[in-house]
Amino acid sequence: MLWLDLTRKYQLRCVHCYNGSGADGTHGTMTRSDWINVLDEGAALGVPHVQFIGGEPTLHPDFDTLVTHALGLGMQTEVYSNLVHVPSARWELFRRNGLSLATSYYSAKANAHDAMTGRPSHRRTRANIEKAVQLGIPLRTGIVAETDEQIAEARRDLEMLGVKQIGADRVRPFGRGAQGKAPDLTGLCGNCGNGAAAIGPDGAVSPCVFSTWIKTGNVRDAPLGEVLTGSGMAEAATAIRNARGAKECQPDCVPNNPCDPRCEPAAACTPGTPPSDCDPRR
Questions:
Q1: How many domains does the chain have?
Q2: Is 97 within a domain?
């Protein structure tokens, strides 16, 4: 599983954003050719799944081209979007075979949802969730809320819209979600870097999108395969697993802590533990 973390550009101002994306964010130094090379190398290595994320990945000028290329390589492709703005032509891309969507949902109540995103966004995100369901586009949603009651209320709202894949998660202590605190390995799931990696807008590779302060290499300096199998990734994965220990994964890890698209929420909660053979991804 590869996360293609395309951009730090984001039209909202989510208070919990794990990488500090916002309106002033940039698309970094990776070129279209760089991203194409990452996809080609990933496919050659047998990587079956890729997720486009950010920031808001659809704001990247090469988004459509890169998604189309990934699909052409036969990769299962997921787009993690806030679904605030989806042009008509973009829906045609989203309906392609092999593509699925994921989004975050914070509350059935517009004011509570908008308080998390920092801008009025609930109405448009909810409407586009409903449209994706109506179009038959595979979609999973992640509820991020503080209480079980809030999660249950949001879940009922999503189920009413026809959403089938619904997970829940807490605010992760990274980026703005850390509220000024230094990143802590114990806030990760414990399985980062195990069959998964993230590539950022500058080409830096990290064990997952939450652990971007851990640099294990850069795809602009070395082939993807060398970085993924290098000592830096192995050491980082070991450190993360040791820090996490045997702590329980709460509340169910997905999809805001995005697990492999093949995984169902219940199975993804215990990566590597029978009967699940799935490892976490966002």
A1: 1
A2: yes
Is the pLDDT at 266 greater than 50, yes or no?
no
Q: Is residue 275 part of a domain?
A: no
Q: What is the mean pLDDT of the chain?
A: 83
Range of the domain at 255: 2-268
**Is 281 within the bounds of a domain?**
no
pLDDT tens-place string over residues 148-175: 999 999 999 999 999 999 998 776 655 5
CB 260 within 8 A of CB 1: yes
Identify the pLDDT of residue 174.
58
DSSP class per residue in the chain: -EEEE--SB-SS--TT-TT--BTT----S--HHHHHHHHHHHHHTT--EEEEESS-GGGSTTHHHHHHHHHHTT-EEEEE---S---HHHHHHHTSTTEEEEEEE--SSHHHHHHHHSSS-HHHHHHHHHHHHHTT--EEEEEE-SSHHHHHHHHHHHHHHT--EEEEEPPPSSGGGGTTPPP-GGGS-S-TTSS-EEE-TTSEEESSTT-TTS--EETTTS-HHHHHTSHHHHHHHHHHHHHHTT----S--TTTSPBPTT--HHHHTSTTSTT----B--
In a domain, 278, yes or no: no
**CATH assignment of the domain containing 133:** 3.20.20.70
